[in-house]
Amino acid sequence: MTEKNKITSSSTAEYFAKNLQQVGFSSPTKAVLTTLKEALDNALDACEEHKILPDIQIYVRRLGRGNLKNTDRILIGVEDNGPGLSVEQTPMVFGEYLASSKFGRGRCSRGQQGIGISAATTWAVQTSATGARVLTKQKGQSKALSCVIATDYKKNKGLMQEKQMVAWEKPHGTRVEFIIDGRVQLNGEAGLLAYLRGNVLLNPHLSLTYELPDIEKVHIPRVSDDLPQIPDATPPHPHTMKLGEFISHARLFGTMKLMDWLCKEFSRLGKEEVEAIRKTTKLPAALLPKAVSSLKDEELQVLYQAIQDAPLKPPSTQSVMAIGEEALSISIQRLGDIDYFSVVSRKPCICDFKPIQVEVAIARLSTKEGSVEDSVQVLRFANRVPLQFDKASCAIVKAITTILWRSYGLKQTKGALPTGPYIIAVSVVSPFIKFKNASKETIDASDELVLEIRKALMKGGQELSKHLNRESRAKELESKKAHIEQFGPALVESLCRILQAPDSRKKRAEEGIQKILGRDDRAAQRALDHAEEKLSEHMQKQKKRLERFTEEDNQIDSDETNREEE
Amino acid sequence: MVRYAIREKDAIPFLSKELCEKILTDLEEGKRPVLKATKCSLDNCIYSPTVGYLTPGSKKTSTELNVASVKKMARAVFMLEIVLRNVKSGGVNTKRELYYVCKGLLKQNKNLKPLDFEDQVESDSVIDFICEILECYREELNCYANDRGGQTYSKQLVVVEKLTDGTEATIDLSQLGTSPFMPKNRPQNLVLKVKKKVEFCLVVESEGTANTLVANGFTHRTPSIVVGAQGVPSNAVRGWVKRIQDQLNVPIFFFGDLDAYTIQNIYRTLKAGSASSLIRNADFSAPDVRFLGVLPEDIAKYDLFAYDVRESDVVEKRSLKKARDALDNDPFFKSRRNKGLVKILEWLIENKKRCEQQAFFSVDAGNPRGFEKIILEKIESGSYV
C-alpha cells in the first residue's frame, strides 16, 4: 500500500471536533442554545440521580465581539446544587467523549451517550481558546475544586488545567462556565426562552433563576417537592428485542440455566409464562434446566418466535420516567396566564420494539397572551428535554398535523397545525428514543410512534372539546338573553308604529314576545346545564381513571417484585 | 294570506299592513309568528313550454320567530316602515341610500339602536327578505338599482314614459343621434310605439358589438331595434325585452358567444328567467326570444376561430360542469321544447370548444358590412334555434 492510500484511524474526540455540526453546533445561535442545554441537562440529571431537589442558576452574558464573523463573545454559566464531581470525574465529564454513566443502561435520563457537554467544551476551545471553567464541590469537602477542562483530541481524554482548591460557600454543587462565540436568540421556537419555558413545564420540582441579555433576572420557584422517581435500570422486555440481540444476550449468560435466564434477565417473564411458551414450541421440557450455552441458534430462534407471539404484560412503568398527569397539571400553569388545560398520560406501550410513554398537555392562554390567528405553540420533549429544531420532520408535529382538530373545536387548515392561543406540549419518554440525528433535535416519525402520540392527542382533544362545548353553550345563552332584551321590544315598537296600534296592544305583544322567546332562553339554559353535567361526569371519570391507573400500575410492579423475590 | 293583484296601487301598503297585523296578533296571543315565502331555488322550478318561463312550485320557506330570527324580523319590520313611507310619498332610494337612511334614523332612537347595520350587505339582505315575504320585486318597494345594460337603438321606436308626477314624456329614438335609449328601473311603466313596421329586435350580448352595428348604419338600413345586453341581463334589460315582446309583437333574436355560460346563464335568463327570481319571472322574461348564434354549425360554415376550453381554467371548467348539471336538473333544459339548446350544450360539453360572437368579424374581414350581412343572412335563412 502506498503512503498516499494509507488508512489511518481517528479518535472519537477528533471525529466530533471536526463534525460539531452533527451535535448541535451548526450555527452561532444554535451553539449558545446547545451549550446551555447540555449544561442544564447534566445539572438536572445529576440532582435527580442523587435525590436532590434541583436549585439551578443560569446566566448568559455578552462579553464583546466574538472571534468568528458576526458573532458575540458569550459567557454561559450554569450552577447547580447537585452532588458535585470528584477530581477524577471532572475531566472525564467535561473533556472526554462517550464518557457517560448512562449509556445503554435502559434508563430515561436526559443525557445518554456522553457527547454533548464535551462537544460544548470543544466549541469553547475552538472559538475562544478557553476550555470549560469548572467549580465543583462534593458533600463534606471543605474546599471546592476549580479548574479549566480541555480535551486531548488524539487520546480522547479530558485535560485539567489551572487546578486549585478554593473556598466556596455552597455545601455541594457544580458551576460550569463556557466562553464561546455565538449569538443569543431569546424569542421564537428556537429561542432560549422557549427552551427554559419547556424545562419549567416538565420539571415542576425545579427552582430556576435565569439572567439573560436584555431582560431582567427571573426566578421561577418550584411547585412540587416531589422528586421524580428515577427509574431503575430494568432487564429488557423480550418484546423489545430483535433476534440478533436475543441470541447475543443469551451468549452472555453461558452457564446459567435457561429457565433462570428467561425469568431473571428479562422483565415480564415468569415460570408460568416460560412453561406456557415452551408448550407452544416443540422444545423438550428437559431443555429448561440446561445451560443457555448448550442451546443452538436454531433453538433460540424457535424460542424467540414463541416469546414474540406470547401475550406478555407491557413493560413496567418503572422503566420509563413519566411526569404524570398531576405534576403536569401543576407545572403547566407556570407557562403564563392559562385559562384552561387538559393533560393526558398514556400507559406505557411498545413502539418499534422499545417501551415508550407519551404524555400530552393542552393549555389555552388567555387571549391577551396568545394570538387567535397564529398557529398553536408546540412544545416537544424527549425524555424531558425540549426539542427546538427540525420541527417539520418530528414524529410529534406529524401526529399533531394529522389530527382533525376542527372536530374538537379548534381552527385548522387541513394538514397544518391548528391555530389559536393554545400550547400543545407532547412529551415522549423512553429509555431508547429513536432520534433522527446525534444532536437529538427531532424524533424519528415511525408509524407506531405517530399512532401512539395521536391517541394521546385525541384524548386531550376530547377533553378540550368538552370544555369548549360548555363555553359555547354559555355564550349562546348569554347571546340569546341579549337578543331577547334588545330585539324583542324593537320589533314590537316598529309593528305598532306601522299599524298605529294602541298602547294596550303594544303591552300585550311585549308580554307575548317575552313569553315566546323565554322558552328559547330556557332551552338554552337546559343545553348549558347538560353540557356542564357532561363536563362534570367527564372530570369524575378522569379522576377514577387516574386512581385505577395508579392501582394497576402498582399491581403490575408488585407482581414483578414478587416474582423476582421468588 | 289573500294575495292582492301586485300591480294595483296600494298593493304593497296593504300587503305590508296585513303582514304586520298577523305578526302583532300572534305576539299578543303568545304564538310564534311564522312568515312563509316561496322557495326560490332550482328544486322548486316548474317549466311549462306553454307558459314559457320558470314558475315557482309549491315549496315554501318559513321563518319562525325565535331567538335566532328575532333580530332579522325586527330589522325587516323597521326597514318595511321606511320603504312604506317611500311608496306612499312616491320617493325612491337605492339600496345604498336606504342603508344610510336606516343608520340616520337608528341614531335618533336609542331603543332601536341594536338594529343598526354594520355594513350594506346586512341592510341589502333585509330588503331582499322583505321582497321574499311580500313576494314582490324591489322596484315595487321604490328601491331602484342603477341597472346596467339595455342600451337601445332604433329609427322606428317611440317610447312614452309615465312620470311620477302624472305627466308623460315621449322619446323618439330616431332623434337621439348616436345616443342610446336606456330603459332604467321600471320598464313596465313604458309604452312602446313604432313609426314604421319593425322587422325584428336584435339583442346583442356584447354592448360594444351592438354599438358597432349601429355606428356602421345597421339601424338606418334595416327597420329594427338593437339592444345591448351587456352580459347577464339585469332586471332592466329583462323587463325591457319582455316589454318589446308584449307591446310590439316582433321577432326577437339573441346573439352572443357560443359557450355554456352564455346559453345557460345569459340566454336562459333572458328567455325564461332564473331560479332566484322565480316570483318575478312573469314580468322579467321574454319566452319568444330565439338564439341566433353563434351556433355550432356556424363554426364550420363560416370557418370561425374557435378556442379549446382549457381544463386548467377554473372558470371555464366550472362552466362546463354547470352545463352538465343543468342538463340533468334544470327543468328548462329538460323540456323537449328546448332540445335545440340542449344539443348545443351537449356539443359544447363533448367538443370542449368555445367561439366568441366577434369571430364573425373574421369573415369578409375588410368589409365593414360583413358582420351585418351575416346577421341578416342567418335571420332570413332561419339559422337560429
Give a quick precis of the structure:
Chain A has 566 residues and is an alpha+beta fold.
Specify Rg of chain B, calculated over alpha carbons: 23 Å
The CATH class of the largest domain in chain B, by name, is Alpha Beta
What oligomeric state is this?
A: heterodimer
Give a count of the beta strands of chain B, DSSP E runs of length 2 or more. Answer: 14
CATH class of the largest domain in chain A: Alpha Beta
Number of helices of chain A: 13
Order of helices and strands of chain B: HEEEEHHHEEEEEHHEHEHEHEHHHEH
Content of β-strand of chain A: 15-25%
Which range best describes the helical content of chain B: under 10%, 10-25%, 25-40%, 40-55%, 55-70% or over 70%?
Answer: 40-55%
Tell me the greatest interface: A-B, 30 and 30 residues
Describe the structure.
- The complex is a heterodimer of chains A (566) and B (385).
- Chain A is α+β, with helices and mostly antiparallel strands and 566 residues long.
- Chain A folds into four domains: 12-220, Histidine kinase-like ATPase, C-terminal domain (Heat Shock Protein 90); 238-309, Helicase, Ruva Protein, domain 3; 319-463, Ribosomal Protein S5, domain 2, CATH 3.30.230; 468-565.
- Chain A contains 13 helices and 16 strands.
- Chain A has helices at residues 12-18, 28-49, 89-95, 116-128, 192-202, 243-251, 258-264, 271-280, 297-309, 325-332, 395-401, 447-499, 503-565; strands at residues 55-65, 72-80, 132-137, 144-152, 157-166, 173-182, 207-211, 218-220, 338-345, 349-351, 354-365, 377-382, 385-387, 411-412, 418-419, 422-429.
- In chain A, the strands form three sheets. Chain A has an eight-stranded mixed sheet with strand order 5-4-3-6-2-1-7-8. In chain A, strands 9, 10, 11, 12, 13 and 16 form a six-stranded mixed sheet that branches. In chain A, strands 14-15 form a two-stranded antiparallel ribbon.
- Chain A is globular and about 110 Å long.
- The two termini of chain B are 42 Å apart.
- Chain B is an alpha/beta fold and 385 residues long.
- Chain B folds into two domains: 11-141, Arc Repressor Mutant, subunit A; 152-381, Dna Topoisomerase Vi A Subunit, Chain: A, domain 2 (3-Layer(aba) Sandwich).
- In chain B, strand 11, helix 8 and strand 12 (290-293) form a beta-alpha-beta unit.
- Chain B has a five-stranded mixed sheet with strand order 5-10-9-11-12, with helices on both faces. In chain B, strands 7-6-8 form a three-stranded antiparallel sheet.
- Mean pLDDT of chain B is 89; it is low at 1-6.
- Chain A binds chain B through residues 480, 483-484, 486-499, 501, 505, 508-509, 511-513, 515-517, 520-521, 524, and chain B through 16-17, 20-21, 23-24, 26-32, 65-68, 70-71, 73-74, 77-78, 80-81, 84, 111-112, 114-115.
